[in-house]
Structures are given as structure tokens and as C-alpha cells.
Amino acid sequence: MEGYAKLVLVTMVLAGLVLVSGPFVANGQKICGMSKEGFKACEPCVSSANPNPPPPSPACCMALNDADLQCFCFFKNSKWMNAYGIDFERATALPVQCNLVKSFHC
Predict the structure, then answer these.
(1) Which residues of 19-49 are buried (b: 16+ CB within 10 A; e: fewer)?
(2) What is the pLDDT along the chain (106 residues), one digit of tens a residue?
(3) What angle do CA 46, 100, 94 make, to 5 degrees?
(4) Hey, is 99 helix, strand or coil?
(5) What is the DSSP string of 35-49?
């Protein structure tokens, strides 16, 4: 139960960051090791509104190179992914597409 409470707390904190700052961070803050610019660079690749997303750009891959990939798993079942039009499956495919890892699963 203690582990569940910690997970809920972390989720609430991250959700609070999203609510306060919108889908991206500001003022040099980072979420999961990615800056606002990094998220913007990857946005076209993960948009659920785009039926044919482009491959990740070099800027997106560079941003992912510095990211804490496991941190993104906290957002796996988050309603915020849908609210901001992010396809989670596409997002978790980016590290492989950027040749940063051989496979990535939450």
C-alpha cells in the first residue's frame, strides 16, 4: 500500500505541473529530463491528430537522449495524454526510432 501511495503522490505532483504549466514546461524547468523545446521537437511525431506522423527529427532524438525514459511510464494511463492529443504508443516508440535503445516498454 505504501508503494501505491507514493505512486499516487508522484502522479499528483506531475499532474499539477501539467495543469500549472500546460502540456509543456516553462522557465527552464524539465519533465522527465526534457525541456519545453525537446517536447516541441517531438510533438509532431506523437500527435494523435496526425494519422501519418513523421519520423523523429534530430532535435527530437537529441532531446530524448537526455530524457529519463522510465519517468514517462508514469503517464502511461494518464488522461492528460488524451487531453493533449499525445499517442502514448507513438511516444514510447521514439527511443527505438532514434536508435537510443533496442526496445522500450513500460
Answers:
(1) eeeebbbeeeeebbebbbebbebbbebbbee
(2) 554 434 333 344 344 444 444 444 556 678 899 998 999 999 999 999 989 999 999 999 999 998 999 998 998 888 888 888 999 999 999 999 999 999 988 8
(3) 10
(4) coil
(5) -HHHHHHHHHHHBTT
